[in-house]
Design a protein that fits this description.
By secondary structure, this protein is mainly α. The chain has three helices and no strands. The longest helix has about 80 residues, at about 30-110.
Length: about 130
C-alpha cells in the first residue's frame, strides 16, 4: 500500500533525481538530491503555470477573434445601411425634382398628359363640324 503511494507520488521524481545523482556523483548526494527535488518541483509548478497562461491566452485569442468578426459584421451592416440611405435620398431627390417639374408645368399650363375626349364630346364636335 505504501509502496504504491510512493510510486504514484514520488516515482518519476525519484527515478530522475537518482539518475542525476549517479550521473554527476556529487560529494554530498543527499544535499544534491534535495536541491534537485526542489528544483524539479519548481519546474513542475512553472510548467503548470505556463500551461494555464497558454490556455488563458488561447481563450483571449478566441474572444478577440469573435469580437473582430462581430465588428466586421457591424461595419458591413453600417455600410449597407448607408448605401440604402443614399439610395433612398437619391430616390427622394428624383421624386422632388419630378414634383417640381410637374408643378412648374401646371403653372405654365403645360402638361404631358394626353387630352382625352369623351364620346359625347366627340359627337358634339362632329355635329359642330357638320353644321359648319
Amino acid at each position: 500500500m505504501e509502496s504504491q503511494y510512493l510510486k504514484q507520488c514520488l516515482g518519476d521524481c525519484l527515478k530522475k533525481g537518482l539518475a542525476e545523482v549517479v550521473e554527476h556523483r556529487p560529494a554530498d548526494p543527499i544535499e544534491y538530491l534535495a536541491h534537485w527535488i526542489y528544483k524539479y518541483r519548481r519546474n513542475l509548478d512553472e510548467e503548470e503555470k505556463r500551461i494555464l497562461e497558454r490556455a488563458e491566452l488561447e481563450e483571449e485569442r478566441v474572444a478577440a477573434q469573435a469580437e473582430l468578426e462581430r465588428l466586421k459584421i457591424e461595419e458591413e451592416q453600417r455600410k449597407l445601411e448607408e448605401q440604402r440611405q443614399a439610395e433612398l435620398e437619391k430616390e427622394l431627390a428624383e421624386l422632388e425634382a419630378q414634383k417640381k417639374e410637374a408643378e412648374r408645368q401646371l403653372q405654365q399650363g403645360q402638361t404631358d398628359l394626353p387630352t382625352v375626349i369623351e364620346e359625347e364630346e366627340e359627337e358634339e364636335e362632329e355635329e359642330g363640324e357638320e353644321e359648319n
